[in-house]
Protein: Response regulator receiver
Amino acid sequence: MAEGRIMAEEIKKAEGRILVVEDEHIVAMGIKKMLKNLGYTVTGVASSGKDAISKAESTFPDVVLMDIMLKGDMDGVEAAKEIREKFDVPVVYLTAYSDSKILERAKKTEPFGYIVKPFDEKDLHSSIEVALHKHRKEKEKTE
Structure:
């Protein structure tokens, strides 16, 4: 029984590398703390779309938590599209905005989740686990 739990923890650690993309520093630090409490490794925190792409390339995350509204000329939807295309990393959107235009743009990037702020650790945990599972199944089909 304990052996199964240990294996599950090892899988989580092996597949628990998260890149946080959030342009509000205090919010980003709160998310980072939640992720660490849940046992994930935070590979980095990016505050712009360009920074997110660069960090995704250099840190090899398993999941990207992406705020949709970012400062700069590239928003989270554009950054997520590029990250998915270049690196095949699943993206879970985090946003305070849930209007239909933004949701429609976000859906076109085939996200692995969409969390509306404010959220708690349980919301974050379940969304990440579903994204990891879905991405693992997708990869199995293509192998």
